[in-house]
Write a structure and sequence with these properties.
The structure holds two protein chains of two kinds. Chain A is mainly α. Chain A is about 75% helix and about 0% strand. Chain A is flat, with a radius of gyration of 16 Å. The longest helix of chain B has about 30 residues. At the A-B interface, helix 1, helix 2 and helix 3 of A face helix 2, helix 3, helix 4 and helix 7 of B.
């Protein structure tokens, strides 16, 4: 298999996207306020976190050069963990 | 002159059940050291279960968790995320520099990553200090117990990661650097999930 590392340009681009998504995380999570989060914001937080974790895996950890099976395995695992967490929080909102 | 290889006995087969080989099976289809990926998977599973446990505890005691969470500095947590993501970039660039044969540049990128790692720990130190000065500790309530345990366990990984980066910068074989970089990215990955869960979700 060809495990060629990403180029400097790709890594910097990935970092820019990660920084932008971190700002997106703070906005979705209303970092400057104590107000409660709507269900939409909770889902948005989960989705952004999933994308960020995939970017770290694919580019920083170079998982994109691994087999498709491994890529799917990691993506599905993180999707399930984050999905369960978001589901628990959404369920909590229904119960309150 | 041809020599006959010694015949393998049943005892030899028992003593060496795994033939010495570079073939790691499915793990060979992952970049870098396969054992590092085993560690990454195990860390993701351990933290994954802890994260789900935290979410369950949150909905069981929503008032305690929301009030306690409001005392955290969310912006500082976000800044720390940016610090760690940037240190991850520095480590990735150190690997690229080494592959291009520039040992000096590689060490500079590693030094930058280490400094950023120390900044992360310093921010954590400020956060913990604030809480301790308010009389808040591990036993204040369930939120703080989990907050200190999860962020503290992660901070230990950061400390360990910094030590690894120092070692791989000093003994800089390509494999050592790749393993150290993978560990650092794993620490980064865990924080990416830890931050919204502990600081933001409510």
């Amino acid at each position: 298999m060809n495990f060629k590392n990403p180029s400097t340009r790709t890594l910097i681009l990935c970092w820019v996207v990660l920084m932008a998504l971190t700002i997106g995380t703070m906005m979705s999570g209303r970092a400057t306020s104590d107000a409660a989060l709507t269900a939409g914001l909770v889902l948005s937080l989960g989705l952004i976190t999933w994308v960020k974790s995939m970017l770290i895996l694919r580019y920083y950890l170079n998982l994109r050069t691994a087999s498709k099976g491994w890529n799917k395995g990691f993506n599905i695992y993180l999707f399930i963990v984050l999905g369960i967490i978001m589901l628990i929080f959404l369920l909590g909102k229904q119960l309150i | 002159m041809e020599t006959t290889p010694p015949a393998t006995t049943a005892q030899d087969q028992v003593q060496h059940p795994t033939p010495p080989s570079d073939d790691w099976g499915a793990l060979s289809r992952l970049p870098g050291n396969p054992m590092m990926w085993v560690l990454i998977w195990s860390e993701l599973v351990v933290f994954g279960v802890s994260f789900i446990g935290f979410a369950v505890a949150h909905i069981l005691q929503p008032e305690v968790f929301t009030q306690s969470q409001d005392s955290l500095n969310r912006v500082l947590g976000g800044i720390n995320t940016m610090v760690l993501v940037t240190s991850g970039l520095c480590v990735a660039l150190a690997v690229t520099a080494q592959q291009k044969g520039s040992q000096r540049l590689m060490r500079r990128w590693l030094a930058a990553a280490i400094v950023l790692g120390l900044v992360f720990l310093w921010v954590k130190f400020i956060e913990y200090g604030e809480k301790f000065s308010q009389g808040i500790g591990l036993e204040t309530n369930t939120f703080y117990t989990l907050y200190f345990l999860l962020t503290g366990f992660h901070a230990f990984h950061v400390v360990f990661g910094i030590i690894i980066l120092i070692i791989v910068g000093w003994k800089d074989s390509a494999e050592n650097l790749e393993i150290g970089a993978s560990f650092w990215h794993m620490v980064d990955l865990i924080w990416i999930i830890l931050f919204p869960l502990i600081y933001l979700l409510r």
